[in-house]
Specification:
CATH class: Alpha Beta
Radius of gyration: 16 Å
Number of strands: 8
Structural class: alpha/beta
Strand content: 15-25%
Order of helices and strands: HEHEHEHEHEHEHEHEH
CATH topology: TIM Barrel
Helix content: 25-40%
Number of helices: 9
CATH architecture: Alpha-Beta Barrel
CATH superfamily: Alanine racemase
Shape: globular
Length: 214
């Protein structure tokens, strides 16, 4: 099926959760796909493309004009300088050290704080118990827009997503301002994420399949 048809299916599935698909921002995860797939995503009406690696994203930016690029993968501090000012949103700030490095390059960089809500060693993100302290720190340095997380590798993701919704609410209360983005949910669990109050989903396989040409 085409990317446009897959996107229509995603929107229908979102609607079945009781949420308005127009209220959910879809980030098309183009990691590993070439510029042709990125352009197909844009033609289907997807404006935001998400990449895990800085260098791969920078190369695609040259050949795929018109997209809004998000960095959704772990950002190493030695890649901060090329990343700052190039991404509309960096979703993976998970430490005070990284936030400080980004602030030295661009204190106006829009970011999300990534939380390891699944509490899995293989995942990036700040521990949930330390997340609010990091939120305070990041908000003082950068343009903090919200929170991001991945669901657990196994089991029901809804408790983790509900925890993220509550964590965002507490962060908003502490900061005294709105954090409009709750980026939770991927191809395998986006419906649960949307039902739990997510505002942004990061989708790859459900849009592009797993065997597309690269």
């Amino acid at each position: 099926m085409s990317v446009a048809a897959n996107l229509a299916s995603v929107r229908e599935r979102i609607a079945r959760t009781g949420r308005n698909p127009d209220d959910i921002t879809v980030v098309a995860v183009t990691k590993g796909f070439g510029p042709d797939i990125c352009k197909e995503a844009l033609d289907a009406g997807l404006r935001i493309l998400g990449e895990n690696r800085v260098q791969e994203a920078l190369a695609k930016m040259v050949s795929v004009p018109g997209a809004e690029w998000h960095l959704i993968g772990h950002l190493q501090t030695n890649k901060v300088r090329p990343a700052a000012r190039r991404f509309a949103l960096i979703q993976s700030v998970d430490s005070a050290h990284l936030a400080e490095a980004l602030a030295r390059s661009d204190p106006e960089q829009p970011v999300l704080v990534e939380v390891n809500v699944a509490r899995e060693a293989q995942k990036s993100g700040v521990d949930p118990e330390r997340a609010l302290d990091l939120v305070d720190h990041v908000a003082a340095l950068l343009d903090l827009r919200g929170l991001m997380a991945m669901g657990p590798a196994e089991g029901d993701p809804r408790p983790a997503f509900d925890e993220m919704r509550a964590l965002r609410a507490e962060a908003e209360q502490r900061l005294g301002k709105s954090l409009p983005i709750l980026s939770i949910g991927m191809s395998g669990d986006f419906e649960a994420a949307v039902a739990s109050g997510g505002t942004m989903v990061r989708l790859g396989q459900v849009l592009f399949g797993s065997r597309r040409s690269r």
